[in-house]
Amino acid sequence: MLTNAQVSQLLDAIDVYETNCEYDSVFCDVHDRLAAAGAAGKLDIAALVFWKRAAQGKWVKKFLSTPEETVLAATRAAFAAAQDGSALVELAVLDGFKTMGPIATTVLCAFNPDHWAVMDRRALRGLTRLGHGLPRRRRGRTVAYLRRVRELRDCLRRAAMPSERWRQRQPGITARDVDKGLFVIGK
Predict the structure, then answer these.
(1) Looking at 17, 40, 65, which one is the last position of a domain?
(2) How far is residue 95's CA from residue 118's CA, in Å, rounded to a whole number?
(3) Residue 98 lies in a domain
(4) How far is Cα 68 from Cα 28, in angstroms, rounded to an integer?
(5) Domain boundary among 48, 65, 82
(6) Calpha distance 89→149 (Å, rounded)
(7) Which of 34, 39, 59, 185 reaches 20 to 30 Å from 148, CA-CA?
């Protein structure tokens, strides 16, 4: 049993938690999907893990507290941007995207894997092992990485492919395909 004081304390604590309903919006969205489907897919579980592990980074908690409209506006602007730098700047208004690196490129790549690639330390190492490494400088590194990956993508599209399987796939090789290869090389 709870005392009246404990009941009040608990109810006050629930009110405090619920003052930031944006934070739980991911959880609530996944709940709605699970209730409708009667099962959870990998995407649902990934979203819940992200939500649950928010304490692992202050940016995650801040991001989860960002209004959905703000996230949609930033990603919409980034997806419409004509230049890499502009797209990264549009995303940089969101917590977790300020470094304009791996997380930003992941979102952009998910939107258009033909044009964008996921930047990762292993992929950067793969570029170096392949003989196409980037300078160590931080400023502009993401844009340089994206350009280099597209150069490699275009090179693969024009290359004499070693097998029929690859010749058939050749026109459809994407920037994402290249970053996956670089990831393996750099692992």
Answers:
(1) 65
(2) 18
(3) no
(4) 13
(5) 65
(6) 20
(7) 59
Q: Is 149 within a domain? A: yes
**Residuewise pLDDT in 10s, the chain (187 residues):** 767 888 777 777 777 776 767 878 888 899 998 889 888 778 888 888 888 876 677 888 888 889 989 999 999 999 999 999 999 999 999 998 999 999 899 999 989 999 999 999 999 999 999 999 998 887 899 999 999 999 999 999 888 878 888 888 888 899 999 999 999 999 8
Cα gap 168→149, rounded to integer Å? 21
**Considering the entire predicted model, what is its pTM?**
0.81
Buried b (16+ CB within 10 A) or exposed e, 119-131: bbeebbbbbeeee
Range of the domain at 144: 121-186
In a domain? residue 96: no
The number of distinct structural domains making up the chain is 2
